[in-house]
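From the shared-data thread, chain only:
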Amino acid sequence: MMLKERAKLSEKTSSAILAVSDLDRARRFYAETLGLEPAGDMEEVLSFRTGSTTFMIYTSQFAGTNKANALVWDAGSDFDTIVAELRERDISFEEYPDMGMEIADGVHSSGDFKAVWFKDPDGNILHVNSM
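Structure, as tokens:
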């Protein structure tokens, strides 16, 4: 009997999945407010394309209970442009003074690194950085 080669999790694509309380409200926020491209719409799960990946949102009674980053985008050299676009879309940035970074108008910085955090309508913490 020939053994099947083992599958390696490290070679598989991963994606984020976020809990929301209202799928229609989340659809409007992610598609219209953030301008993300929908990638799929199943009965209780939506997916959005970002770069070469996708992330999903689904309804849950536990939406917004995570107190850490739920989703992060590495914006690279487009950081300032993306932050300006988010401001134009009335996104408010969170400030975390305990992180020990300089903060100016919601933008945290340390050396060449810059970052912003903001929340979706359920309180999921979303993060954009300059990496």
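The mean pLDDT is 93.
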